[in-house]
């Protein structure tokens, strides 16, 4: 089906943005509903609306796997099936021209198998007053992306680092830093990896790449980065490229120090660097699947609301969607509307209802859509 059809007057009709949606167990179904409601409200003025392309598979969370299966081999089998399916779903979205997918939390082992195959990096710009830090988490290699071989009383995990992937991660990080700081002034480039375990290969790759790119890249052990962070802080416009072994643990701490935000309220983006993926961006909440809250209408929707606003602005042409959403969220805070984890007494549905009541959609404009941001079947 063509992306745009002719109107009766003979002018092209607006293309319909297509956004992917992948849902995991736990509170995934509830948050998927939040995403659809908020995205729908923010994009309602678009002539063709927005089409959600939902994955037909409900992916496991770690808790659902352990709850339903005791056999390690079966858990490993289902983990692989989820990874294979989600990879195919993302590749099909990209092939159809779709550039964004929102995913609720799924089992980490399945997720990181996909991130290795699609060469994903997590990008988060953190700010504290006038100081900003761009965190780029290398999710495409290392311990997190390994595969398991089981023997009685033993798990052997095999992992890989490669020069090719390292270069792709660094190049994307530099490109993104220059986009975030348009004057091109990147204060410092720091890499936090356990490179001492790799026989000198990793830092040699980085040294060679830095020479070719004409930049200075400092490679540190994670404990050195922590010590410097505590003792001196990091200068404004630091580009911090980090192995996931450290960055996953430190992300919430950096949020507290630089982002002045809670993990439960935060969404982030994962960019697929695989050459065949066309830069597909996956949006997610920073918090997990919260299986203990499933079906209780109590999960905090703020991170999902923010993800919907980012998707609306970046991929549906709705300029000002993020600002309008943040204004509405601030109004809810002033009114004391929130879920129990934030000290409130409201349900998920009540919070979203209040948000949509406070949301000024008239403050959101519509930019001309690029064909690169839309897709269809």
Descriptive overview:
Helix 1 (28-43) packs parallel to helix 11, helix 9 (302-315) packs antiparallel against helix 10 (321-335) and helix 10 (321-335) crosses helix 11 (348-358). The protein has two domains: 1-119 and 274-377, no CATH class; 121-262, 3-Layer(aba) Sandwich (Isopropylmalate Dehydrogenase). Helices cover 41% and strands 19% of the residues. It contains eleven helices and twelve strands. The chain is globular, with a radius of gyration of 21 Å. By secondary structure, it is α/β, with parallel strands linked by helices. It has a ten-stranded mixed β-sheet, sandwiched between helices.
Q: Compute the CA-based radius of gyration.
A: 21 Å
The low-pLDDT segments are: 1-13, 370-377
**Secondary structure: helix percent:** 40-55%
Work out the count of structural domains: 2
Shape: globular
Mean pLDDT, as a whole number? 91
Secondary-structure element series: EHEHHEHEEEEHEHEHEHEEHHH
Number of helices: 11
